[in-house]
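the two lines:
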Amino acid sequence: MKQGTSAELFSQREMAHGHFLMTVRTEAPFKASLPGQFVMMRPETGDCPFLPRPFSIYSVRSRGDDIFVDILYTVVGKGTEVFSRLREGDPLHILGPLGRGFDIPPSCERIVLIAGGIGVPPLSFLAQRCREGNHPARIICYVGARNAGMLVGLDRLQEHCSAVEISTDDGSRGYHGPVTELFRRDIDHHTGGDIRIYSCGPRPMLIGLQALLKDRPVVCQASLEERMACGIGACLGCVVRTHSDGTKSNLARVCKEGPVFDISEIEFGK
Amino acid sequence: MKVKMSVAVGGLTLKNPVMTASGTFGYGEEYADYLDLNSLGAVVVKGLSLHPRGGNPPPRIIETASGMLNAVGLQNVGVEEFIDEKLPYLRAIDSAIVANIFGESVDEYVEIAHILSDTEGVDAVEVNISCPNVKKGGVAFGSDPLLAAEVTRAVKGTCRLPVIVKLTPNVTDITEIARSVEAAGADALSLINTLTGMSIDVEKRTPHLENITGGLSGPAIKPVALRMVWETVNAVSIPVIGIGGIMNASDALEFLIAGARAVQIGTANFINPSAAVDVVDGIERYLAQRGIGNINDLIGTLRI
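prediction for all of em together
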């Protein structure tokens, strides 16, 4: 029986403005975490946040019976603001690992990662796991942010990927422009052959990427985020419209059928 | 001491007074990893319509102070798929299974109730006349004592199972609806459903919910729910099930002391998936510690 597992904040520090790296010490169920999965978490004390918050898993490691889960997140509202002020030893209520992770074939020639802003963590985890498992693919990561100060997780990406290409919207570092434009420059190299693409980032970025890849013969999975209440598929609060192979569109739960979807199946709407 | 926790709710016997609220517990199986479903008094499944229903476009939820708004819009698989795909799992559980139902017309309510009446594995029907997210049917039925009675009478006429009618708080006087529904033959009442509310994004200057308004649930509504349960208990003779912001055993005990025969746990399930079981254990502990051997000796013992 899974249960809500007990956990505590092991360490936390601010990486870039408003971006925090939090390590949670918890128990066995998280050992089996897969890249693309997430946790639902809330501080055990206090009324705020009321609902648990979903966080992508950045990394997992074990030491004896302790499992350490790394989470890299940004403060976007009241709930994440409370998290950013938590201290070592603060008890946490955690549920997971949740959701459908990325499908990674045992072998392919190349893996392309496209990360926007705080979309880095699940892709970094994917690269890490591939490296640890001696996956034969060459892993190329395109990572973009609004400016140089908002780029996060570069150290781990550089450790696990064969190449990391950087872009900033304001040109303060790397390519001057959105990460999708940087990817577009190389797109012909990445859309013929034994290649898999994985992406995570702001909705406008994913919409742009979906358009770029339309009608190209390449498999791309995107990890979505949505406001959640239960995180386990019961409340139907987090749905997104999807369709497969020209069938009628239906509603998929980001927490259960997702958060990872084939990018061509997502109906982003307005 | 071993405490007797069994309660009778209008022809439905529950092993304990704790039920899970419709819309917060899926079709039960979603929570199987987190608690033993057999330890619950009853599972009330997601509201069922005659045909599958997609619900409202996202965004559907937003947290508010000590609560949340939802405008899910009654998305469900429809009564046929429920019977074929979801009920088999629930039949294996020995807790009571309550089918929450709704329709856009009296005829629809009757049709669903009729189908479920002869369905093995369903122990009672809870009639939703109160969901505030539905643009047709829902709001009108629950706010009008005559329409509420009409639906009740029609469902009661076709359904062999105990009929629980779930009331909306978005009315001037809930006891008026309660008395009307009792007179129409309801076996029990459950209240409250969500309170209609709203939340606005001050950066985008748009409502947080695509539906604009939604139903408020969670601790924020408990005082209102408790007051309405107490008023209704004093207005009718049929059993009343208390719902609204119950997060723990102490909250549940407030409703029982006020006269509720049973309680439903809803939003608390999102905070703690085993909340309902914790409530059962907590009630039992409270009674044992005070030497109260039977839960029915606690119900309605509010001292005024």
